[in-house]
Amino acid sequence: MKLLPRLQVEGSAEWLARAATQCLIDEARLSPKPGLVDSRGNGAHHDLTLALMERSAHSLTPTFQALAQQSWQRPADIALRQTIGRLGREGEQQMMAATNGVNTHRGAIWALGLLVSAVAMLGGDAHAQQVADTAAGLARLPDDAAPKVFSKGLRATHRYQVPGAREEAQQAFPHIMHYALPQLRQSRLNGSSETHARLDALMAIMTSLTDTCVLSRAGMDGLEAMQHGARAVLSAGGSAHPAGQQALAMLDRQMLALNASPGGAADLLAATLFLDRIESPYLTH
Ligand SMILES: CC(C)(COP(=O)(O)OP(=O)(O)OC[C@H]1O[C@@H](n2cnc3c(N)ncnc32)[C@H](O)[C@@H]1O)[C@@H](O)C(=O)NCCC(=O)NCCS
Ligand SMILES: Nc1ncnc2c1ncn2[C@@H]1O[C@H](COP(=O)(O)OP(=O)(O)OP(=O)(O)O)[C@@H](O)[C@H]1O
């Protein structure tokens, strides 16, 4: 692999960090998303707003940049895993400081952080599948310095015996690679607007993700409502189609009634937009 001069590495790290932040902002603004914060309002969240999500996204740029710098052309080993674990946890603290203690982006720091690191490990130029595989290699390494803390996500994975954020990464992000990215591109090819293509990609994730945000807030009934509702949108022709729009509005009402919010699916949509950008960095959708 070609060794890049320091300045070029810094420039690439900055580009990756800005791209990751922009994907978080694009995800947050995308509307109408069922149960989630979007340009219309707060969805099922009492403690989140779009302004808070955007402030949080900006607070994470230095974290993404440090992750890219530290990971540049390095192999997946315990030393790198420890470094990115530390940077990820520091990023969570930055986020919490920017939001006065509200969890806006924990799952997104995990998924996007690993993907930013993986692109940098590969020298800044790679296909989405290689990036996902490389990120999975990192996620499978033990992080011995991680504090043993209680988390809602972990409790939901144990209680319902389902994979969560950790496993999604360790399995090389199947919901991005097998559902969201293909749907995003198919909907674009079908002539859908960028907004509709992104909403369809979100629906594709929601058809099968075991989203621990939804499980924690609304149990298995909430998760089933999310998966069935998302399938109904896609089988009605997607969000660009009038019948799909009706199905999406119904899913939104259901999610609000159940106090359910597919935050994990939202994180994976942001990560999907990032991998899409990596493969076509000069296109502005
Ligand atoms: C793995 C993480 C997300 C912790 O996950 P945990 O399952 O313990 O639960 P927690 O409730 O804190 O967060 C889960 C979040 O993931 C998202 N999520 C939920 N379900 C899913 C799913 N099935 N797939 C993907 N994401 C999901 C949601 O946004 C949710 O808020 C992460 O915070 C972590 O361990 N960070 C340590 C720092 C680190 O190693 N970073 C390295 C990369 S930067
Ligand atoms: N647009 C969005 N709207 C809402 N949540 C989002 C959005 N995008 C991403 N998320 C994710 O959803 C998670 C927030 O979910 P949730 O509010 O259930 O977490 P919590 O603070 O741990 O729980 P609770 O609010 O039930 O106390 C964040 O970690 C974030 O990663």
UniProtKB/TrEMBL annotation:
EC number assigned by the record: 2.4.2.52
Record key words, sorted: ATP-binding, Nucleotide-binding, Transferase
Broad EC category: transferase
UniProt GO BP: prosthetic group biosynthetic process
Catalytic activity: 3'-dephospho-CoA + ATP = 2'-(5''-triphospho-alpha-D-ribosyl)-3'-dephospho-CoA + adenine
The keyword Protein transport is assigned to this record: no
InterPro entries: CitG, TriPribosyl-deP-CoA_syn
Molecular function terms from GO: ATP binding; triphosphoribosyl-dephospho-CoA synthase activity
Functional summary from the UniProt entry: Involved in the formation of 2-(5''-phosphoribosyl)-3'-dephosphocoenzyme-A, the prosthetic group of the acyl-carrier protein of the malonate decarboxylase.
NCBIfam families reported for this sequence: malonate_mdcB, PRK01237.1
PANTHER family: 2-(5''-TRIPHOSPHORIBOSYL)-3'-DEPHOSPHOCOENZYME-A SYNTHASE, TRIPHOSPHORIBOSYL-DEPHOSPHO-COA SYNTHASE
Family: Belongs to the CitG/MdcB family.
Name the UniProt record assigns to this protein: 2-(5''-triphosphoribosyl)-3'-dephosphocoenzyme-A synthase
Organism: Superficieibacter electus
Gene that specifies this protein: mdcB
